[in-house]
């Protein structure tokens, strides 16, 4: 029985090498385009800081919904600007490691701020934690982009 496939397994080595080179070139082009613009990282950091400030001011009832809308809006905008849609924080091994460390720091900082403000009555401790979390979000966002670029170029 004959195969009806266009590629019957008889690709010559030069064609195979050219196809692999095209894949490598595509991966490099994508790696060059995946970096989010500055406003994406700063927008995420500012939105998180404002949510924590609203918790300190005891007006957080609608802040969660606003945060979701801001994050979805930023995500859509960055996909439009870069032309690339991917799970930025978990797409590559390097990005996952950084994001995992960020999540641990996020939880610890948020918990510390809440305990200080609600249990020890330290005014604006949650807002202070939110400022640190916002700054951390910006810094880690840039590092995640760099890790994703590096991993994609290396084929990971």
Task: Considering the chains and any ligands shown, give keywords for the structure.
single chain, 156 residues, mainly alpha, elongated
What does this 3D model show about the protein?
There is one protein chain. By secondary structure, this protein is mostly helical. Helices cover 74% and strands 0% of the residues. The chain has helices at residues 13-33, 38-56, 63-82, 93-119, 125-153.
Sheet with most strands:
none
* Residue fraction in strands: under 5%
Rg from alpha-carbon coordinates = 22 Å
Class inferred from helices and paired strands: mainly alpha
The 3D shape can be described as elongated
End-to-end C-alpha gap: 39 Å
Summarize the structure.
The chain contains 5 helices and no strands.
List the helices and strands and how they pair.
Layout: H1 13-33, H2 38-56, H3 63-82, H4 93-119, H5 125-153
Helix pairs in contact: 1-5, 2-3, 2-5, 4-5
